[in-house]
Amino acid sequence: MFRLRYFASFLVAGLLLCPASAQNFWQQTNGPDGGRVYALAINSNGDIFAGTCDGGLYRSTNGGNAWAQVGLAGSIIQSLAINLDGDVFAGISMGEPGVYRSTDNGGSWAQAGLTGMQVYSLAVNSSGKLFAGTGGGVFESTDRGATWIPLGLRDSTIYCLAIDSSDNIYAGYYTTSFRGGVARSTDGGTTWADVSEGLLGTAVFALAVLPDGNVVAGLRSGGIYIRQVGANSWSYALPANWVRNINITCLTADATGTVAAGTEGYGVFISTNGGRCWSQPIKGLRQSSFYAVAIDSGDVFAGSYGDGVFKLARNDSVWVNLKSGMIATMVEALGVKAPYVFAGTEGGGVFHSTDLGGSWTQDTVGMDFPYVRALAVTPKGDIFAGTGGGLYRSSDNGASWRRAGGRAGLDSTVACTCIAVDRRGVIFVGTDHSGVFRSTDNGSSWLQANNGLSSPFVRSIAADSAGVVYASTFGGIFKSTDGGESWLQVSASPVGMLAVKANGYIFAGAIGEGIRRSTDGGSTWVQVNNGLGDSYQRGITLLWVGSKGEIYAGSGRGQVFRSTNDGDSWLLLGAGLAGVWVLSLAVDSSGYLFAGTEGAGVFRSTQPVTGIAETGVWMRRSFVLNQNCPNPFNPSTTISFDIPQQSHVKLVVYDVLGREVRTLVDEEKEPGRYSVTFDASDLPTGVYLYRLSVSGGPGQASSFSEMRKMLVVR
Predict the structure, then answer these.
(1) pTM of the shown model
(2) Nearest-CA neighbor of 147 among 123, 124, 115, 103?
(3) Mean pLDDT lowest for which of 350-359, 625-634, 697-706?
(4) Which CATH class, in words, describes the domain spanning 621-712?
């Protein structure tokens, strides 16, 4: 027999049926400023374009002092080029890969070919031909991207392109057989010759042509090499006493012979004499990794990994950070200590706001590794920040930071992934290769606590009100009932996200499985995906417990769900996230919900969540039939659907021959979200279909029909 169960939210009609102009649930705050900048280009008017990772393209018309987003949000922009007519081209490697073109200085964008191909580099020759380096060789367009012709090197990823004054093309490649080097074409790309003699065989990430015709190459784990005009091989260009295995990420050169090179971990190298001598100016830099460089009238601009753009003016020795208005930060952690909201960013360190995100202040004093992955506030008011290079503590509300790992092994070589504080104030820090560390004295001393923990990669850690601590790892979920002295495995399935309510209920998120819940300390688990639709199949990026015991889940772009009934059902929290990934959540002392995103800074709810009715999902004003969960299943599964207006609803199960197997619903329904538990214990293994048919209720003309497949497995 089948069992029928309904979950619905019945509210006052004026709240449930939100008009099209209803206020968004979310709004973007004014920061934090910054972002991961992967491409820079400057046009003849001095306008600067910065391509970011997930944050879109930004433009500055005043030398970098202020920035405005001009499109392409949600994509990784790897390269930029400007042709003789001033058209701007953007090469995108992820998001919606391909080439995009703007003919109005970034005001609007159109697809310009190579759709679906990862584009890593762009270059324009003296006649205006456009060349693209992709994951499958070099391509040429003679009509501004309308059509493209493959030119060769199809077995290689082309990370960089450079064109000399004779229109000879240089391509830095890395082949499918894991060999890197430089290829040159002297006939517009018809034929290619390998010119890698003297290089190391590693991938070439950057190329630049000097005014005298010499070519400079930046290697992965190999530093900088130069090839003189007429020479048959490359020679090492950096000082002999510098580290040789440096990753060079980008290169540029101007008409005076000034060369700038971005590196991973070593800042920016500059040569003012064609690569013969190099300097490493570091004053003013809070960053050590840079992925884009450009030179304009002697001023050097460098795109950092997380902290926006830096500028070194001609004849100056101090860098200036230019990021006002560039809200492209990746916020992996949020923390609250009234009246402060703290945001931990990738590359920009910690920021704080005391005015609901109206303004953000950067707090980096003493934090020499500003890649923040976790934040926690202890009962004594200290703030701990877990970074990719160790643990930091602030006792003055973020004004200054000092390392907190001590001599227990939690030093700068350890990457922290998560932090939890239990009811007694014991601090637990999870790491990505060293397991768990524990402190019982507010971070003054630490002990490694890995007894029974079979996997040293800890993704998430949480504690309940009874002091039981849970850790999710690549080896499954582990539980400690003795403050971390020992661990017991309670699930062998690897999960990414973990949240524990005060009542001991455990929620675990995994890719392709959605959310699982345990109400008995991890002994048994059930899936609780009702209301998540297909979102859970893309993976759960976030689980978090609010101050009132509500559960929040992030899944996919612009997808944040909330459950107020321990996961029995989930509601999508409205619109306004603009399709960004949510990585962290926190509620401030006023009840506003803050969301840290990947590439768009921090968003917050437009009103306190403590007073919001559960209306978010119904703002879609559409019928939805969700994929059953679990699928495949044995013997039962749950089918959920949304009804935005009063309607007659019929939900029927069929076999593959179209014969009706069972009618699950056939009645008038009020607006709401419903779920049906379908028990197939009396049916054989096989594929079955279920159809939702909706006809308009009284005074309604709408109709809807959708069918999905499900699989019974014995």
Answers:
(1) 0.80
(2) 115
(3) 697-706
(4) mainly beta
